[in-house]
Amino acid sequence: MQRRHFLQTASALGLTQAASAAREDVPKYRLVTPYGKEGNMGMPGLFPGSLVSVHAPKSFDPAADKADPATVEAMLDRCMAALTGEKTAAAAWRRFFNPQDTVGIKLNCSGAPQIMSHPSVVAAIVKNLVAVGVPAKNIWLYERFPDQVRTVGYPSWLPEGVNILAAETSRGSLRNYDPRVYAEVNFFGEEDTRSCLVRLISERLTKIINVPNMKDHGASGVTGCLKNIAYGSFHNVARSHHDAKTNTLTFIGTLAAMEPLRSRTVLHVMDGLKGVWHGGPFAPVPRFRFFPRRMLVGTDPVAIDRVLLDVIEAKRKAEGAISVWDRDPRSLKRGRGFRDDPNSNNFIREPGHIEYASTLGLGTYDMARIRVQEFGIE
Amino acid sequence: MTALLLAAALPGLIWDGHAEEPRRLSIPRVCAFAEAAGYQKLPVPGVRGRAEVASATRQPWIDANGWRIERNRGWSRVYRYELPAGKTVLAMAEAFAWDADAWIKIDPADLAVFARMSAFLGGHAAEPMPPVVNIGMLDDGSPLAGEIMNLMARKNLLFKVISSPETGYDLVFRLGSEKPKTYPANPADYAESIRQQLGDEKRAVRLYGTSSVLARLTGAHGKARLHLVNYSQNTIEAVRVRVRGEWPHRSAAAVDSNAAPAAIAAEDPEIEGGFTEFTIPSLPLYALIDLSR
Questions:
Q1: How many separate domains does chain A show?
Q2: A224 to A220, A300, B217: CA distances (angstroms)
Q3: Given a cut of 60, is residue B4 above it in pLDDT?
């Protein structure tokens, strides 16, 4: 997609304030991929503008730092049935997956081992995939950095045969990325201007389930479905931040909209057993962790992230922290100053990336047009 | 005569030990340190950690001599390296890639490494081809111009020093002439400004997946040779290479300190829009890629 096309797309959809600001600030992206749109299940998916939220107090015990797998499974079942309107969870999963699929599960391990796609959630997803006939050997958990993944201990939660790929066997290595699928952009004069897609996605996976957490993010405001699938599926993305400036406003949506990632990402399971309300995506300071004990499920990443924005913003407000929308340069602090002070920013944050992604057709941002089904489990 | 010329392109050994040792290892060019004492000494190549020099792009600090050799090309300089252990392959690769007349004093423990590298380079010695560059650099001899050349080399902005404005370059740069008021004080910003003026799309060589590899490209008559020198001395997994020109035939070899040189396959090749791309799956210290039509 050339920049001209990109802007026409945004204009045609009717720009709101954040997107209008973004239009003035769109770097010149060159998007290269031999893949086109595949089927009709890609983002925003089978249920645009719709999501299910389930809250279960028993799902996680903060004192013991333990999840309750049975409750987590029940949460996922409830979400899937409600999302699809099917009577059983099994029927719901069959709407998305069949035995011929090779399914990727996009983890989020940037805050591991304190917060990550919880293994109980991942195990529940895998159990359902196997139940619909997807062979364990055709299921791939993937992330970018092996040192983060290793701390979680996923294998002990999974049936034998499930694969785990951490793409960067050494930091910056291109080996597991596809050189034919990339976004090229020069943000700050960096020499390596390409971000390539994880090769597993382009060459092997037929479908992807995205499993982000409920987290604040120092650059993008929050990190949910969009940030996890975009920055977690391409390499060389940290270059989008420099000094106080971050290009997450446009880069996240731009990457998420690239094929074949967009077409193959068919389901988002936001793991809100734990959360981070300041200092994300990492979680080094215990007092900034919280426990929503929620799960949000849908096919529309923008709609889910729009709800996430409210969750993080409400928690920050309750804690007396500045808004994720704060753009005051006086709030800027670097390093430990930012890490320890919830009234500071590491970058001028860009929570508008969610609305911006909606202008690329990735989903629905307007809360008035988002249908949220809410349930509770005792 | 040709054989002598080709042999002269190989780095020579400075050796004050027993003369029999290099002879036994078939090292073709050997001299005593006293003979080389008057040659221009080059800094030891490599990467240094410089915590005080923060960089937006997290670029390592590379000590490289290609820009210096290029700057002195018209002066028939002869160079001398004095190396600690473990730097032999890197220095030999640099000297060979930039076609320098260089003599190298090594740690005696590296003698076998020197011999192995010398044999490899001897097997690839060829008639010199002219450099393929984008930029003609009018050098005023100032330290600032030198630093700009150093930083252009760091960014793989390929240049040739010229004495007067010539045609045939995508960009001719002269310090302080064309747009003096628009140029910043920081040499790194000069180099970035040159890059912006040139445009990445025109660049003769681009590398992806590394910030510690410098390239030199030569070519003529439907052939080209690309040298990739890895200053980090850590093997880099998968370096993506983009070279101007359509090169359907590629042969590549890579060299490390601790292993015999090996042929490598250039993976995922693509030829499109007047450029050739491929991936070097593993780049130890040095790779030499011959391209042809």
A1: 1
A2: 10, 12, 45
A3: no
Q: Nearest by CB to A174, which of B155, B195, B238?
A: B238
The pLDDT tens digits for B178-205 are: 554 556 677 888 899 899 999 999 999 9
CB B92 within 8 A of CB B11: yes
- Both tokens of B275, joined, read 């450029």
Mean pLDDT of A258-278: 98
**Percent of chain B predicted with pLDDT > 90:** 76
Could you tell me if B10 and B117 lie in one domain? yes
Q: Are residues B196 and B213 in the same domain?
A: no
The count of C-alpha atoms lying within 13 angstroms of the C-alpha of B82, restricted to the half-sphere facing its C-beta, is 9
Q: Mark out chain B residues that contact chain A at CB-CB < 8 A.
A: 56-57, 59, 155-156, 192, 195, 200, 207-211, 236-240, 268, 270, 277, 279, 281
CB contact under 8 A, A186 and B200: yes
Of residues B32 and A23, more confidently modeled: B32
The answer to whether residue A165 sits within a structural domain is yes
pLDDT at B281 over 60: yes
Domain of B162 in residue numbering reads as 135-202
Contact B92, B117 (CB under 8 A): yes
Residue of B55, B57, B275, B279 to mutate when probing chain A, most A C-beta within 10 A: B57
Single-letter code of the amino acid located at A352? G
pLDDT for A19 equals 54
Across the interface, whether the CB atoms of A189 and B195 are under 8 A apart is answered: yes
